[in-house]
Amino acid sequence: MAVVFEKPKSLTDATLHYCPGCTHGIIHRLVAEAIDELGIQGRTIGVAPVGCSVMAYDYFDVDFVQAPHGRAPAVATGVKRADPENNIVFTYQGDGDLAAIGTAETVHAAARRENITVIFVNNAIYGMTGGQMAPTTLPGQVTQTSPYGRDVETVGYPVKVCELLSNVDGAAYLERVSVNNPANIKKAKKAIKKAFQNQIEGKGFSLIEVVSTCPTNWGMTPVKALEWLEENMLPYYPLGVYKDIYAEEEAK
User: pTM of the full predicted structure?
Assistant: First the structure.
């Protein structure tokens, strides 16, 4: 009988703690598949901060470092610079981490063109801490701390990370993807693998933003959450490549 699917070697057998319908499991699998296919499992070191990803060290069968909230890019910088020829370093961060308390670390790691890979999960809400408004919460979106919807006149507009970093000269590769359907999952896998390949080739800072769901804190079923993502998040956070300096150079 032909084998059509196997669990990636870079994932452990641990049971995920994520809520039913959460897309973190899909993203974990895509990251692990990229690591397997590139043959870098023994060289890879992950960095996870505080957030839903805080227990990622239980799920990836690679070395892992725990970082303080928002500081994953800074920790990843140190790990990478300690052995730049051998270490393949990635961070796995949510929007309440990367786009809030960790904004400075993200921007300056990109500005320095640190040769790391950042996996950024954007579900427009603080997941682990109970569903508060996040920097990426949509205008009018209801959360625990915006019960009448996000009021941009009071709290400002959402932070669009790929658009922001596209203006940072040191950023090498930025792409926004989603995992809401099979076609987009396939594109997300390709982008994540390219981000790791860029690091292997020494091309510098790569960030993949994955537009995701949080059914529990959105107060929706998993199916409804996927529909809400497509109808509301994707128009505000359009998918696509926001910067790829090497592709741009090759096109000239």
Answer: 0.96
